[in-house]
């Protein structure tokens, strides 16, 4: 008898349907599904902004020395903004990773739950308010 036939030939009463036990990770994952969508959209926006800034930083300097001074000052400011964006991108990716592996909302330092108010204010938070 083939395996498939053996399974389908079982008497109906021997197949017992038990309710699926919901693990803590399953409820956490569904709890943060909407947040993950929001963070993914934010990540795409941050990456687009960073790419625009990096394109601006790659442009050659003007031959005019006065224009070069202005361009250099602008580039310095843009580089600072780019650094902030890159950190925000990394933090957002880390938050998405924590949502995926089930550790989002848990303090990385003490293991306590991070309050929903804190996560609403700072979705990339890795520490509870006491450890921050």
Count, helices: 5
> Mean pLDDT across all residues, rounded?
80
Annotated CATH architecture of the domain at 24-59 and 66-121: Up-down Bundle
**Which runs of at least 5 residues are low in confidence (pLDDT < 50)?**
1-25
**Mind describing the biggest β-sheet?**
none
Total beta strand runs: 0
The level of helicity is 55-70%
The CATH C-level class name of the domain at 24-59 and 66-121? Mainly Alpha
Give the helix/strand class: mainly alpha
Rounded Rg: 25 Å
What is the helix/strand order?
HHHHH
CATH topology of the domain at 24-59 and 66-121: Four Helix Bundle (Hemerythrin (Met), subunit A)
Q: Give the N-terminus to C-terminus distance in angstroms.
A: 63 Å
Anisotropy-based shape = elongated
Topology, pairings included?
Blueprint: H1 3-8, H2 24-31, H3 33-58, H4 65-101, H5 116-121
Helix pairs in contact: 3-4
Please describe what this structure looks like.
- The structure is a single chain.
- With 132 residues, the protein is an all-alpha fold.
- It has a domain at 24-59 and 66-121: DksA, coiled-coil domain (Four Helix Bundle (Hemerythrin (Met), subunit A)), CATH 1.20.120.910.
- It has five helices and no strands.
- The chain has helices at 3-8, 24-31, 33-58, 65-101, 116-121.
- The chain starts with a helix and ends in an 11-residue tail after the last helix.
């Amino acid at each position: 008898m083939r395996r498939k036939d053996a399974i389908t030939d079982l008497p109906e009463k021997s197949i017992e349907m038990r309710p699926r036990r919901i693990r803590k990770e399953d409820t956490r994952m569904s709890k943060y599904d909407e947040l993950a969508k929001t963070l993914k959209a934010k990540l795409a926006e941050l990456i687009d902004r960073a790419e625009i800034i990096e394109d601006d930083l790659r442009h050659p300097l003007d031959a005019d020395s006065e224009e070069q001074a202005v361009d250099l000052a602008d580039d310095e400011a843009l580089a600072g903004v780019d650094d902030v964006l890159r950190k925000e991108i990394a933090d957002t990716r880390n938050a998405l990773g924590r949502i995926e592996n089930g550790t989002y909302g848990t303090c990385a330092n003490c293991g306590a739950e991070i309050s929903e108010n804190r996560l609403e204010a700072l979705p990339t938070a890795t520490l509870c308010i006491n450890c921050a």
